[in-house]
């Protein structure tokens, strides 16, 4: 199809504007809606409720303690912010030591750095108790596994002996 003078581009000078519009790539698909931050990082409400009620019950004695839904949300959000702040501080301490893995000492130093010194000793004793319980569980499970293995071995030997006796009797 021949073009008349003044109608579009000169011959041999590339595609016309209408051809460019037709060949343009399709617009990218719309991005999915962002996930609200609270849904991603919110602490489980049941755990927050249990922790708050247990602590308040310990302090109040036998009284039943009720906590408003908004108060539980405030406790959860406060805990989340504290965890973020503590972990960021511990991460900085870890990086200063040219390591990539945060350890217990980094967390304890972070508590000291953010001036929560009163948490350090209770945390140390809680960690010690946790380690003792885990060590007991591990040693208990190892001895249980060893006992089961011995029973299996004894049971296997007994079955083998019975099979041999049956062969001798039938032969």
UniProtKB/TrEMBL annotation:
Example GO CC term: the record gives:
epsilon DNA polymerase complex
- Annotated ranges, domain Transcription factor CBF/NF-Y/archaeal histone: 42-111
Tell me the segments the record calls region Disordered. Answer: 1-41, 133-171
The GO terms this record gives for MF are: chromatin DNA binding; protein heterodimerization activity
Chief location category: nucleus
Quote the subcellular location field of this record: Nucleus
Residue ranges under compositional bias (Polar residues)? 153-165
Q: Where is the composition biased (Pro residues)?
A: 25-36
Point to the regions of Basic and acidic residues compositional bias: 141-151
GO biological process, any: leading strand elongation
Q: Which SUPFAM superfamilies match?
A: Histone-fold
Q: Which CDD domains match?
A: HFD_POLE3_DPB4
On whether Transcription regulation is a keyword of this UniProt record, the answer is no
- Key words, A-Z: Nucleus
The protein, known as? Transcription factor CBF/NF-Y/archaeal histone domain-containing protein
